[in-house]
Structure formats: C-alpha cells, structure tokens
Amino acid sequence: MVRLIDSIEIHRKNTAGKFLVFGEIRLKKFEQKFSQFIETGTSIIEISSNINMKANIYFDLRVFANISIISEKLPSGMANTEIKKTLQMKSLGELSKDFERLLEPESSRFADVTLKCSGVSIPAHKIILSARSPVFAAMFANPMKESRENEVDITDVDVSVLRALLVYMYTGKTSDLTSTSAADLLLAAEKYQLRDLKTVCSHYMMLTVSFQNVWSLLVLGDLLSEDLKSFAVDYICNTCGEMSVSEGTEEWKALLIEKPDLALKVSELFA
C-alpha cells in the first residue's frame, strides 16, 4: 500500500492585507523550509513537499508554520524580496528594543558585571560586552581583577558617554548626537575597538562640519582616523582659500601650540 502526500493546504481567513506563512515541513530525516504569502482576498495556499514515499511505509508528516500580518501600508507592487527585507528590518528593530531593555534598572537582576564611572554603578552583561568589544572580551576571558570581582572601573570616560556607548553596544543605535558627544564617543569607540561606532561618529562629524569645528576634526583625525583627517584637510583648503584666512583664528593659534607638526603640514598645503 502506498500513501502519497505531495502537498499541504493552509486555510486562513484573510481580511487585513498580506500574511506571510513560513516554517518547516519535517518528515523523518527530510526537512523542507517554506515561505509564501497570502494575498488580500485569498484564504488558501498550497505548500508542496516533493517527498517520494516508499510502498508499505507510513510516515508522520509535521508542518511547523508561523503566520505574520504584513502592514496594509506596504505598497501593493512591492516585490517579495523587498517585503522580506522590510520584515527583516522590523525584526532587527524589535531585537534592538529587547536588548535595550536589558539596560533598564528593572532588568539589572540579570546582570553579571558592574561598570563604575564617576561614582555611578551601571549593571551590564559580560556576554554582550565581550561579543561587541575585543577589549572587554580579553578582560573577561583572562584572570584579571575585573573578571574575578565582576567590577570594571571606567576612569577616562564621562558617565554620559559611557551610557551612550552601552546603548550602541546593546542596540546598534546612536541618538541625539552633537559635535561634542560624537567626538567623545569616537574616542571611547577607539579605546574599546568598536570599529562601526567610529565610522558612525566620523560620518556625523563630517556632515556637521563648520569652519569653527573643523580644527577639532583635524586633530581627532590625526589621532584616530586617516579618513577624518583627509576630510578636514580638504575642507580647510576648499573653505579658506588662503592661509591668511586661518592664521588669525583662535583655532589655528591653538593648533600651533597643541599640534605644531600638524599645523606645519596644513600650512605647507597653501605654499
């Protein structure tokens, strides 16, 4: 006797736009993933299994499916790949929010390390800090004081910068950046080897550059980022036109005192 099962039907009343149905068909060692959409006005889809059955053998066919509502605001002509990207971004956004909740005081009972900064204690999680920062990973992987006592003293970063740093490490988000906070975060990102955060901060400073703050960008770039330094030099050359324009500014005078070698390199560009 042969039992053939080559398709599965899913019935779902659909009145709210598009649905995404996805999951796995499992049959002994056979596994087949599926992902299909139920369009507006449709109540049935068919999922083909393409399984060859052997005679006189019965199998238990199980389907694990999830049904997700897709917002009606999505353009009707949007391709499936675009819809999947939209859903993925939504999922990543929810993941980011979930991780951000770990920084809330009510979630501190799950923390296993305390960051101490300017008299403030901030609960955190070794696994997340280690996954995001090679510096923290090395700190907790070795028999150091921080690993034994589950406390880390942060002495060279302001507490507001540390909180912003943690938000980025947990969520990948930066918010309410200013020229000053972006510069502070860039320094912190360099210390803890957060390469993507360095890029974010550098990009923000490039977008908000002015003749007044370009000199601080130049100094930071000389210290941390060749791209930021090159951008600052180009901006100065294109904006000033002549060196005499810069020589009378307080920023230039400060650069001569703090970074004479860098000031010399800039002045040579106008020679």
From TrEMBL:
Entries under PROSITE patterns matching the protein: BTB
Cited SUPFAM superfamilies: POZ domain (SSF54695)
Ranges where the BTB domain occurs: 111-173
Name of the protein in its database record: Speckle-type POZ protein-like B
Encoding gene, per UniProt annotation: spoplb_28
